[in-house]
Amino acid sequence: QVQLQESGPGLVKPSETLSLTCTVSGGSISSYYWSWIRQPPGKGLELIGYIYYSGSTNYNPSLKSRVTISVDTSKNQFSLKLSSVTAADTAVYYCAGTLVSTIFLWGQGTMVTVSS
Amino acid sequence: QSALTQPPSASGSPGQSVTISCTGTSSDVGGYNYVSWYQHHPGKAPKLMIYEVSKRPSGVPDRFSGSKSGNTASLTVSGLQAEDEADYYCSSYAGSNNFDVVFGGGTKLTVL
Fold it and tell me: N or C terminus of chain B with fewer C-beta within 10 Å?
């Protein structure tokens, strides 16, 4: 059974870069498109972007200038970097496994707060 | 504001049926048969319950069913059980010009 686990700092200062990693266990990283999704407090879900194991990416246009998603197949991990963060980036961040717009796998989520 | 509209809450007694709606447009729900539903118990990983409008992943009870009519998709939970109390989110493919996936704002299902 494939499981996903997010890791990274829970507190990031404004203007700095948010960095999260998702570890894929129990399955192959070549099986899905790997996504990052977030949910700000009291708001809806937002797809940030996704990557295929080959390295091809697609980012939400609203975040594209600040987002980098990368994959490390040797470690079965993929990562998110979001630069120049503000309080509006405070959210629960989920990593996920996606196929044809369906999110088949979800991580438990990690809360990231942007505050000085 | 979410792209897809869900009622904020729904409720039913054990054993009853409840239907949650998810309304979009012809550019998302109405245009593609790629509507999904997710169950989320707070603090846990969300779980896929329905995909491609009405398909159930392995392990999801057949008490959960999905359908679509026009621009509105629906999730029906039959024979409500206490463990069904959770937040439910819908999503739909919205075409590559709309960055693929849009979500509903979520519905809190309460089992009375």
Answer: N
